[in-house]
## 1
Amino acid sequence: MPQAAKNFYSWYCVWQLFKTRVLCCSDGESTADKSVKIFQNYIDGRFVRGPREFPDVNPADGSVIAQVSEADRNQVNEAVSAARSALRGEWRRFSVPRRAELLQKIAAGIEARFRDFVAAEVADTGKPVSLASKVDIPRGAANFRAFADLIKTAPLESFRTEMPDGAAALNYAVRNPLGVVGIITPWNLPLLLLTWKVAPALACGNCVVVKPSEETPASAALLAEVMQEAGVPRGVFNLVHGFGPDSAGEFLTSHAGVDGFTFTGESGTGAAIMRTVAANVKPVSFELGGKNAAIVFADCDFDETIAGLTDAVFMNTGQVCLCAERIYVERPLFERFVLALKKKAEALRLGWPTDETTTTGPLISKNHREKVLGYYQLARNEGATIVTGGGAPHFGDGRDHGFYVEPTILTGLPESARCAREEIFGPVCHIAPFDTEEEAIAKANDTKYGLAASVWTTHLKRGHRVAEQLRAGITWVNCWFLRDLRTPFGGMGLSGIGREGGVHSLNFYSELNNICVKL
Ligand code: NAD
Ligand code: 6OD
């Protein structure tokens, strides 16, 4: 079969699967037989429509794949009320082992509908089916399994206190739920980032109201079905669809009945949410943007470094907050490195997301594509050399209506250039040479962000030494995106507030009560 026909066939199969299995959400009833697919809100254990709808667009060809039911202020209020009532209901009596068991059941539910989730994520985000199958959906299930285990072994402090007069007391902390948690997530890794917050929140006994990105409602809608099937009590997990300002996002963040917010998204949105939440003095956990640096020493394992940084720059079409957009290479290696990464960039396969051989899908939206192409033009204006890419591809088929851009490598920008300082969030990096370790560290740290960094060297002591001096919430040495869910995750500066992961998640989603008993 010719490649184009194969592509069409595989796309058709995934689309059929998507139509018949995914697009539902009406009290468990599939709407597969209806022509217009509607993603509904899930409030108090029921799928409900909102007063307005907006289209869900496939970024690969710009087609409308479903309508999304936007929750209005009343429905957001109902979701918060349902969550608050559920906190007082049978959920309060769920012991830790029972909650852990339920989380395992949710993970199994995701695994049982693996193909549905993959199809949903691929159609919604345009990410390659290979990536959704290897990363997004397995991690969605793994988040529930990890926090099911972690909550059972969560440490709590205790101190025996002795006063100078001989009085003694036993102090010990107990972990209570934070309460109703508002969860707002972006479009780049929809299920992964949503479950990364929902799993620990439920593990700690909270009830949640989640608002996924308006760009990617599909996997959250499927997750609501899995919650229902797993027997999560009504009101514990609520889902509202919509936008940010003057829509479900803002209705949620301005609601005084929510006890805390966890948000992943742009730094500017974080600032807006912080202003809204400040009125009710609620705790926040923010995972925001980045302009992440990689430092490559001349003594690195060259092939491993090129492979690692190809992923770090281009995975998910560069739409991962941890992607490396600035690469500093020790001068003797500079030219060889630029040529090798260029070769890798040019070998990437921009294809239909449903094609197993595609490595690079489209960007998420028309707006985002305009933004990234704007940066490509800005780079030229700022004096960059475009080593490869710098434009939009032409396919001669439906993908020309999608939101693809070329993988791009820039050199020659001054450190002050906007393209070297602002988060672009596309398949693009700037590569610059350095001469000393101190210079590389200073350049890597010269940013308002502080999310992730990587160091590439075979010199063991230098690896540790440099990593310790980098101003980032996570620093990889000779690897990238290798994640252990027990470790702290988050950023400093414009990259966020607080840490999640392991016990850090458990602490954010809990209120500790220290009990002091006189002995
Ligand atoms: P975004 O900030 O535009 O939107 C994220 C979410 O916030 C969406 O659900 C959106 O509807 C909602 N929102 C927007 N304005 C709001 C408001 N005023 N009140 C309440 N909710 C509002 O981000 P995006 O474009 O979806 O995602 C890309 C950004 O996310 C990038 O900057 C990327 O670096 C960042 N990101 C960070 C991490 C991390 O872990 N640090 C992970 C993934 C993405
Ligand atoms: O792996 C994770 O836990 C995580 N929060 C990844 C974030 C990726 C950002 O786009």
## 2
Amino acid sequence: MTDQVAFDAIAATDHQSPGGIAHEPGELHRLLVDSIDDYAIFALDPEGYILSWNAGAHRLKGYVADEIIGQHFSVFYPPEQVKRGFPNFELREAARVGRFEDEGWRVRKDGTRFWANVVITALRDPSGGGLVGFGKVTRDLTERRRAEEILRLSEERFRLLVQGVKDYAIFMLDPAGYITTWNAGAERIKGYTEGEILGKHFSVFYTSEDLQSGKPARELEIATATGVYEEEGWRLRKDGARFWANVVITALRKPDGSLAGFAKVTRDLTDRRAAQEQAMEAARKAAASDEANRAKSEFLAAMSHELRTPLNAIGGYTELLEMGVRGPVTKEQVDDLQRIKRSQQHLLGLINDILNFSRMEAGQITYDYSTVALSSVIENVGHMIEPQAALKGIKLTFESCPPDVVAWVDKSKLDQILLNLLSNAVKFTKEGTVTLDCDWHDEQRVGISVCDTGVGIPSDELERIFEPFVQVGRSLTEGSQGTGLGLAISRDLARAMGGDITVSSEIGKGSQFRLTLPRTPST
Ligand code: ADP
């Protein structure tokens, strides 16, 4: 409309005398055109030379009327367009069809470019129809173009970003649920390429149960009503395999509030679900095995109690007979009674060891840690074993241990380990010495060794002696009775407290057991 007014005005000016009266319509039009600031409005003669200039043209192009009137309008075009003959082409087209419109780069006086919308209108003599010139209206759309460009770039970046995302299927549905976009994650998770899936209904991802219950449509309804729908459930891949999905459907609305479609984001949680199920299964199994362990140790405790009662009776009556309370006994009978007594003692030891071992296995042993001075432990345990050693004529020595050498252990467990090592040393030594010694220590650890000059252990059996129920080289120690559990229990206890037991030995020369323990709580 404005353009038309402008052209009329331009056309009118050509037919007005310069001294026309201000209130004449032609003069008014000229004033109007001259003062329009937002549009460059000017007239060209039939060859394209500039005849008039307005405020908008000055503002847009930078020239004042005096310097531009009479020049050819191609000065506003970038050189490459002038070279192509574009300005003259525009005029020819306008002359031919009456009007030519274009958007493109134009040049200001200072050489800078701006994005212009240009309309050129052919002006014809109302009487004869001959071409008298052209009206040209130019608008500066640089800002709009920049904003459009920024928007386009940001949309493009966003599209590339979404398309490249691999961990999430991100795609769009139209209001009826047909798929309109697809990304790399969707292809990876669901297995369809973009070409295969665009235009298909999103219900292809649903299981037959879900289809029967009308779930896909329900989900869109909820998203439409509330803005968003979210759930976790089974979905189908292209090959028909199920995967556990987290699904978020968001309703997209146009500025006028009408529904534009839906954005759908799907994550494949199959691995996470499998991991959760595994963890639950492991927890179930652990609970079941805890239960089984408790039942087992209750059973063993009850059984050991039941076994101990008759065994104690056997011991008691054997002692009565041995002491001659029931009448005189011969030397042979005393020997037999002592054998019965040894077997009875052995059996009692066995029951204790089995009970201990099963508690250990079931992880039911609790540890009461404290800082323990080793010198006092060594002395105590040494005194306990002294009678046994004396009986066999074995020399028992405990090397003195500096009073400040300590270990961070459960004292009763340490006693148990040392007693076991010492009684083994005495048991497997015919004559000679047994030495108990805290032989080294550093900042973190302390070592205690139990050495004997006994029968020794075959080198290929050294590791095996720590296995439960293993007894090696019994022929070397006739009469020795054990369970083969002592070392297994001792090593487990030592390791549980952060230490260890190792052994070195030589047949016929003796053995050295080494217990290492932490000096301080581990951090
Ligand atoms: P037990 O002493 O009840 O047989 P242990 O587990 O304490 O069970 O010991 C396992 C085996 O290791 C013993 O049967 C014995 O063959 C061997 N052993 C342990 N200590 C010594 C030692 N000081 N000298 C020689 N052999 C030993």
## 3
Amino acid sequence: MNFGARAALRLEPRNLWTVDLAPPAGSILQDVYEGLSQTRKQLPPKLFYDRRGAALFGAICGTRAYYPTRTENAILERRAAEIAGEIGSGSAVIEFGAGEIEKIRLLLPSLRPTIYAALDISREQLVQASSRLAQDYPWLAVIAVIGDYGSELESQLTLPAYARRVVFFPGSTIGNFEPEQATGFLRRVRALVGDTGGLLIGVDLEKPVRILDLAYNDPEGYTAAFNLNLLARLNRELGADFDLTAFEHDAFYDVARSRIEMHLRSRRAQRVRIGSRVFTFAAGETIHTENSYKYTPQGFGEMARAAGFPASRMWTDPDHLFGVFFLHS
Ligand code: AVI
């Protein structure tokens, strides 16, 4: 196996390799200055996921209100044989943003790929989760690729030509991309998997507003804590002086744009110091922290077609809350 200039290292167990394609760790300060200097202040959602943010996201996924995780898991579990039938055995599966490597486990016994490459930026978590997977599935070649799937690192990935390439992108993370970014992402995947490969992707579907509003305003308050942790992170990592009690979580569904918007709303007029700069907030002004787009099956199918995937099949749950799509040419 070849990964551009970087050699893959073989680890224990013997069916596990790792390769480091991570960019040098940079400061988040530039992103923060840029976002907060806009007329409508914003911060990129990737900043949510420090250690505490990742733990809070895990807690959100376990709530009753946040239906996507359990619904997608149930679809993968119940439809594993059909999904495997569509993809065929012996493929090379590449998961983007693999995290704890849990969802692919629901498919492996039916899917029987030869290679599973897990991409994630969080080194320690990825190597540990890959090692557990390699131990549990000794027949599978597991490759832990430390890198950012958002940075077009697929040009550095050379997988064996004989295996059908299938990108696995569960979790409805595509919903956090702006529609043009999402199309660009699908095009990149299409180039990576080629004419014979495909994309297995989880997509959150449009649904009644009350279900969506509740999912992003869970009664336990984990989503609010997850949103506010972003400011706590800026205090921890950049020495900023955000008063966390002076901001509140605000999440609502915008029907016209088919998206949940998350904001942090300033409860009063205030000034906040970050590094060498001071930012001024009016009472009620917000920092826009995330969009989460919801798609209709038709709308997503059209986007996929425009990106070079003319064929698709979707599996859903009885309430049509969530769709798992297999896109191919
Ligand atoms: C990761 N992503 C798909 C989640 C979502 O639903 O958009 C992030 C999230 N934000 C608030 N709750 C969950």
